[in-house]
Every structure is written in structure tokens, then in C-alpha cells.
Design brief:
Helix 4 packs across helix 8 and helix 6 crosses helix 8. It is built from eight helices and no strands. It has a domain of 106 residues: Cytochrome Bc1 Complex, Chain D, domain 2 (Orthogonal Bundle). Helices cover 39% and strands 0% of the residues. The longest helix has 26 residues.
Length: 184
């Protein structure tokens, strides 16, 4: 005795469509019934009190200016900077002639202009800074908070809060050049 297959039953796909539509109709009907049966009421006050730190209620917190990175660069660890920069590899390459990824290749970025790779499509905010150099302090500010340093840029990185780690990464970036720029 032969068994029925999808090709043998001319109504097979109609049955599948009917099952899907029927399931959707049942789910929708259950939603309507649930709305009719359940009548939530709003509380006059919160059931749980969430403590709010005092600093959060005082308004915007003033950020202190960044300390200069130059003193830390003298003792920066290039190997530690390379290790810290591994999180950048998802979007950037560091090798000479390396490809652009989501972000531009960072070979010879220290001392170069902000929009240093001609073949990369920079955001208008970064493109407007193409005449400014990536000096050590500009890199320090950018790596601390890219969105604040260049508002409107495409980089989705939150930044590096540790001064020592930023100095290490900048030292590593400095080493990625045929002629590394002199330290300040």
C-alpha cells in the first residue's frame, strides 16, 4: 500500500496554510478573551522603592578634563597596547597595506590627518577634520570617548577609560609605522 506524499495530495499546501491561519486565529481570539477577563488597575505609588544615588538627582555631572597623555607615553608598554588593541581588530587592521574593515586601516595613524586613508568613506564629522593631525593628545581624547571627541562620527566604540591602557594603545599605534613619530 502506497503512502501519501506532498506531491500526491493536491490539497496538502491548502491544509498547511489552513493550519497556520487557524493557529493565528486561535491565538488572536485568546488575546481578545484575556483582555476581557483581566482588568489591571494602576497603583497610586510604586510597589518597590528603588533607591536613587544622590549624585544622580543633582543634574549633569561635570567631567574633569583629561590628564595629558605625554608623561605616560614615556613608560608605555607596546606589547600591552597590542594586547589591548585586539578589541579593535573587529573593525580595524594595523598592518601596512592592510584592508579597511568597518573602520579604516590604522597603519601610520599617529601624526597623520584625521581622515588619513583616502579609500575609506569617513563620516562627514571626521571628514571635516581631515586637515587636523592625530597628535598624541587628540588620540588620547578620541580613545577616551570617540562620540564626545568627534560628535557625529561612525565609531560605535565606547572608549578606553584607563589612562595607562590608552597610553599603551597609543604607543602600539605609534609603533605601527615605518617612521614612528617622536614622543612629546
Amino acid at each position: 500500500m502506497a503512502t501519501k506524499t506532498a506531491t500526491a495530495d493536491p490539497l496538502f499546501w491548502n491544509k498547511v496554510a489552513g493550519a497556520i491561519l487557524g493557529s493565528g486565529l486561535i491565538a488572536m481570539t485568546c488575546g481578545f478573551i484575556a483582555e476581557l477577563l483581566v482588568h489591571p488597575h494602576m497603583l497610586k505609588e510604586n510597589a518597590f522603592v528603588v533607591p536613587v544615588p544622590e549624585a544622580a538627582t543633582k543634574g549633569p555631572v561635570e567631567q574633569k578634563p583629561l590628564e595629558p597623555i605625554a608623561p605616560l607615553l614615556a613608560n608605555a608598554d607596546i606589547a600591552a597596547g597590542q594586547k589591548a588593541a585586539t578589541k579593535c581588530l573587529a573593525c580595524h587592521s594595523f598592518d601596512k597595506g592592510g584592508p579597511n574593515k568597518v573602520g579604516p586601516n590604522l597603519w601610520d595613524v599617529v601624526g597623520g590627518p584625521h581622515a588619513h586613508v583616502p579609500s575609506f568613506s569617513y563620516s562627514p564629522a571626521m571628514g571635516a577634520l581631515k586637515d587636523q593631525a592625530w597628535d598624541y593628545e587628540a588620540l588620547n581624547k578620541y580613545l577616551f570617548n570617540p562620540k564626545a571627541a568627534v560628535p557625529g562620527n561612525k565609531m560605535a566604540f565606547a572608549g578606553i577609560s584607563s589612562e595607562k591602557e590608552r597610553a599603551n594603545v597609543i604607543a602600539f599605534l605609534r609603533s605601527r609605522s615605518d617612521a614612528p613619530k617622536p614622543l612629546p
